[in-house]
Amino acid sequence: MTALTADQIARVKATAPVFAEHGATITKHFYKRMFNAHPELKNLFNQTHQQSGSQPETLARAVYAYAANIDNLGALGGAVSHIANKHASLNIRPEHYPIVGRHLLGAVVDVLGDAVDQPTLDAWAVAYEQLANIMIGTEAKLYEAAPWSGFRPFKVVRKHVESDEITSFYLAPADGAPAGGFEPGQYVSVTRYVEKLGVDQPRQYSLSDAPHGRWLRISVKREDGRGEVEPGHVSNLMHDGVEEGAIVHVSAPMGEFKLDRKKTTPVVLLSGGVGITPMASMLATLLAERSERKVTFVHACRNRSVHAFGEWMRRSASGHPNVKLAVFYEEVGAADRVGVDYDFEGRVELERIAADAILPDADYYVCGPVAFMRAQRDALVARGVDSARIHTEIFGSGMLD
Description:
Layout: H1 6-14, H2 16-37, H3 47-52, H4 54-68, H5 79-89, H6 96-112, H7 118-145, E1 152-161, E2 166-173, E3 187-194, E4 199-206, E5 216-221, H8 233-241, E6 247-250, E7 267-272, H9 276-288, E8 295-301, H10 310-319, E9 323-329, E10 344-345, H11 354-357, E11 363-367, H12 370-382, E12 390-393
Parallel strand pairs: 7-8, 7-11, 8-9, 9-10, 11-12
Antiparallel strand pairs: 1-2, 1-6, 2-5, 3-4, 3-6
Domain Globin: 3-140
EC number: 1.14.12.17
Organism: Paraburkholderia pallida
């Protein structure tokens, strides 16, 4: 690998403001250019995020961060691990990187024209090679540790409605072999052919039960769409077109958002809406392992009709003295029962449950809509919780910061 010179580092760093200003234009053109040349790659990318512009914007922010920190890559923190896990879940391989690099640099030239000179383009070519090698190396370790390679066929052995919005799918390997292990909190990618788009589409779903090797469970929220947002292509296909006996193709479990099972300190699970799915896996694992760790499970949703796993959560709390439960309903229905279905009305307010939720040395796992996660993180930090003990999971192309 060619090493960046001091002049090349300076050139890449100097172009960071360009990506702050023109990054989204460049990345939108990049995807269009790459898909025109390699339409088969549409199968690897969420085309809904392409159409909304959220994926190009996310890539533009990532390129900006890389350029701004080219002389101090350690400042990127967990971004490399987060992206590598997403890539491994989508089966991104080393041969894809030269294609991306060629079209990304081509998009820079197409958009900026004479505003970027050849030495700067040469510097970016070396910088991209450096980044590609970092990602390839990180992803190679994930593939090596994974229980299987690529997308594996699984049979739907059970389909169970959890709420008006969420349905669980129990997936057993089609060949009868063990389902393989995972860490609670991780996700898999499921791919389905979307006729409207004419391509396979992958979607990530958290595993929602404890690892035991017999089957994997994912719990999928139906995305009906609202306003200008289209209904979810894959979620609707799963709800309406995938029945017991169907075969779906599933990637190996990935994700760095996972319960640290070696610790003995308290655990606080904070979830909103479908963000409950990885938390259900974490709690189920702690119960299966008969852990003595103190657990507080805080969940927020609109009302009982959309509250997945509600009865199981209540049974778990009543049957285990080390488990505390606090459920917030934002829109309490006439039939919703306080102390049975929910505990508090309104949005999550940690001040109301501080004795159970703000615990010394606890690890906090937060999953839900971005606004929900941001609010919980900020509330925890304001109460003196070390940010290193706050773990979040974000799907799609959103960002917490």
